[in-house]
Amino acid sequence: MRLVIVTGISGAGKVTALKIFEDNGYYCVDNLPIDLIESFADILFGQTNEKNKVAIGVDIRSGKNLEKMSEVLKNMKAKEQNYEILFLDCNNNTLIKRFKETRRSHPMGDRDSVENEINEERAKLEFLREQADYIIDTSNLLVKELRGEIEKIFVLNRDYRNLFVTIMSFGFKHGVPADCDLVFDVRFLPNPYYVPELKHKTGNQKEVQDYVLNSPVSHEFLDKLVDMIKFLIPNYIEEGKNQLVIGIGCTGGHHRSVTIANELYNQLNSSDASYGIRLSHRDIDR
Questions:
Q1: Which of 25, 91, 183, 214 could be disulfide-bonded to 247 (CB atoms 3.0-4.6 Å)?
Q2: Keywords in UniProt for this one (predicted)?
Q3: Is 277 annotated as a binding residue?
Q4: Sign of the alpha-carbon torsion through 242, 13, 10, 34
């Protein structure tokens, strides 16, 4: 019997996550009253239950009863009813943007601002976040990427360490991405922009990649960059970091940054990686 409690900040993707669980054969129940969860668990772990994969959605909509969840979890542990907690998180700016785009109000919609509502919700859900087995930050995730992370953990049963790495190429002339944790300037590498036949191509094409990487400096930089990031990732995981955004910048975001970002992604994206990873080229179409 595998029981997953899916929770997290409103707007972080809990409903989407439950749909993903359902697509993968989980029996899903959303917003079950807290007072019924323990009885429901008794049924699930009973001898007559035929369902062996269940996901329960729990969130701030439970109101004051949410406080009872700690006791419910404690009782379930005492009965040896094993469960896992998946907590979906997201940064405030992205959450506010999502609420505006969907024109939906926050469940705690009686406060003076959405940000205050989000912050109050965070405080009320902190006890679940602290107990979470898995934390996925959806701030920069597409739905298909969230699906990939959930399936990695709950379908393929791979090891997961609660860190999602985003490698993002960009052009300095368009500004540094606001959410970058680390920024690397690769404008010192050979620039295909000044080669007429390469000017209108991108770092996704072999001719540009060969030009940029056909330099000892490029290889030395890439080797040192990969070595440093591989050193940092386990230390960030140990520190409890959930999201790492690595920015690779050149002038326009078309050639050098794209090439290096692709190479870094390829070297970090191993099948046995215990972290999630995605690649993004912010300015490639500008």
A1: 183
A2: ATP-binding, GTP-binding, Nucleotide-binding
A3: no
A4: negative
For the chain, give every domain's residue range: 2-154, 165-281
| Residue 63 is labelled as binding a ligand | no
A 10 A CB-CB count for 125 gives 22
Please check the confidence at residue 24 and state whether its pLDDT lies above 80: yes
Q: How many CB atoms lie within 10 A of CB 27?
A: 15
Beta strand 164-171 pairing with 243-250 = parallel
Tokens encoding 119: 């912050």
Q: Which residue has the higher pLDDT, 257 or 93?
A: 257
Contact 115, 92 (CB under 8 A): yes
Give the pLDDT band (50/70/90) at residue 48. confident
Q: Is 11 annotated as a binding residue?
A: yes
Cβ atoms < 10 Å from Cβ of 274: 15
Residue 243's pLDDT band (boundaries 50, 70, 90)? confident
Beta-bridge partner residues of 165: 244, 277
Greatest mean pLDDT among 34-43, 94-103, 160-169 lies in 34-43
- In angstroms, the CA 126 to CA 58 distance is 13
Is 57 part of any known ligand binding site? no
Tell whether residue 206 is among the known ligand binding residues.
Answer: no
HSE at residue 101, side-chain half, CA atoms within 13 A, is 7
CATH class, 2-154 region: alpha beta
Q: Is 60 annotated as a binding residue?
A: yes
